[in-house]
Amino acid sequence: MAAQAATERVERIVIENCSIATVDADDTEYASGHVVVAGNRIESVGAGRAPEGLDNVVRRIDGTGHLVTPGLINTHHHFYQWITRGLATDHNLFEWLVALYPTWARIDEPMARAAAQGSLAMLARGGVTTAMDHHYVFPRGSGDLSGAIIGAARETGVRFTLARGSMDRSEKDGGLPPDFAVETLEGALAATEATIDAHHDASFDAMTQIAVAPCSPFSVSTELMRQGAELARRRGVRLHTHGSETVEEEKFCHELFGMGPTDYFESTGWLGEDVWMAHCVHMNDSDIAAFARTGTGVAHCPSSNARLAAGIARVPDMLAAGVPVGLGVDGTASNESGELHTELRNALLINRLGPHRERALNARQALRLGTYGGAQVLGRADQIGSLEPGKLADLVLWKLDTIAHASIADPVTALVFGAAAPVTLSLVNGKPVVEDTRLTTVDEDAIARATRDEARRLAQIAAGA
User: Fold this and answer.
1) Closest to 430 (Cα-Cα) out of 7, 16, 39
2) Where in 268-331 does DSSP place strands (E)?
3) Is 186 exposed, middle or buried (0-12, 13-18, 19+ CB in 10 A)?
4) Phi first, then psi: what are they for 276, rounded to 5°?
5) φ/ψ (deg, to 5) at 402
6) Pairing assessment for the beta strands 66-70 and 29-38 based on DSSP bridges
7) Closest C-alpha to 344, from 69, 106, 105
């Protein structure tokens, strides 16, 4: 009886009269339906009005003219780059890294915090309910960068994975980052495990999780890759890194390791269901087969790949082979908008420039990449990524009845093919994070000022170095 009473006291939010794309296994959709949220869980989803007689309904929302979807899930990002946007705009990846590493190597804790606040604000405003950050630049004496980033995510109110990155191959070892911007092998492993100890939550409704994430083959030693994989599996967390992003990386791996990136990753323990890679642009049939065989996931970053002229990832072929694929913004120094909802459209359009042309992706496949696909990649598909009873209440109410979308009959087509849709409501864990396009948890104007100030301070420090 006590348990029943506790259940009845759960506060409910009811959304009705809206189109719904559940992104469940059957792609169930409702032209006019309802979603009931009880506490931090989805209680019911269906056609028509919500059930009568619900207790403790604290809010009832008329969703006329709106589409409800699962919250978007970002699977690859570099928050710190928010304060170096608009630089090296005509460079390929290696040129871009060489141009910007000297500046990035001078970030400190206040800069990392402000950059994370700016990145998270833009993600949340655009419908992201689960974010991630691959942070790998830890200059000596820079402070608690991981703590600053995680603190910003908690303030914003989004679900969050910090991929605690690392680099131990600097310029003196043939890598790209400056010598003072890398860690030792021992230091990187110890700091990564300390971050897991301090912040990782393995529970069903976890708001903060940690992944082990050495940066890339050209900035990390083979031993850090191997021991990083061992650490992740010993501690039961996921693994993340960059892979097969450019033809230059392919050449680098052959020259240094005598094999391509995928074979190198496999030799160091970096293929598996607990691994996801960013980009994966230059993958041959054998590479895709290896990812499918091992369940290795991919974070597809179409805008960044285009910005850095990296190429077009073979997403249709990956999906056909059974590779888990999600979407990523990537760092805001290679995707200055910093928004994931625009990646739904860009993923569809850019992949249609490839060999599959108009059959590459459709609107619903693009939405799945940004929701359920992301949940798969982050290892949370049983918790988030689709609207189903029992799953966590992470959802977005998109406004589609303005001039920008009003003449597009199909709401999913309107969301993906059309202009970026305004977010009327975004719930994370059942709590509002965005209301009528504005963040409810943080002061957007204060964040804008802080990020501008920290960007200027970093530019001044870098100029005087």
Assistant:
1) 39
2) 275-279, 297-300, 325-327
3) exposed
4) -135, 145
5) -90, 180
6) unpaired
7) 69
Pull the structure tokens for residue 211.
Answer: 């992944």
Residue in this structure with the two tokens 């083959």, named with its chain if needed:
217
Per-residue tokens: 402: 């303005």
Q: At what angle do helices 185-199 and 145-156 cross, to 10 degrees?
A: 30
Write out the DSSP string of 361-374.
--HHHHHHIIIIIH
| Residue the block writes with tokens 């970096």 | 270
Pick the closest to residue 94 from 176, 167, 171, 216 (CA basis). Answer: 176
Residue count of the chain: 465
b/e per residue 442-461 (b: at least 16 CB within 10 A) = beeeebeebbeebbebbeee
Query: Which of 235, 223, 225 shows the shortest CA–CA distance to 269?
Result: 225
- Distance CA(415)–CA(461), nearest Å, equals 42
pLDDT digits (tens, 9 = 90+) for 113-152: 999 999 999 999 999 999 999 999 999 899 999 999 999 9
Torsion angle in degrees (nearest 10) through CA of 317, 320, 321, 327: 70
Cβ-based neighbour number of residue 279 at 10 Å: 27
This prediction has a pTM of 0.96
Residues 286-344: pLDDT tens digits? 999 999 999 999 999 999 999 999 999 999 999 999 999 999 999 999 999 999 999 99
Number of H helices, E strands in the chain: 16, 17
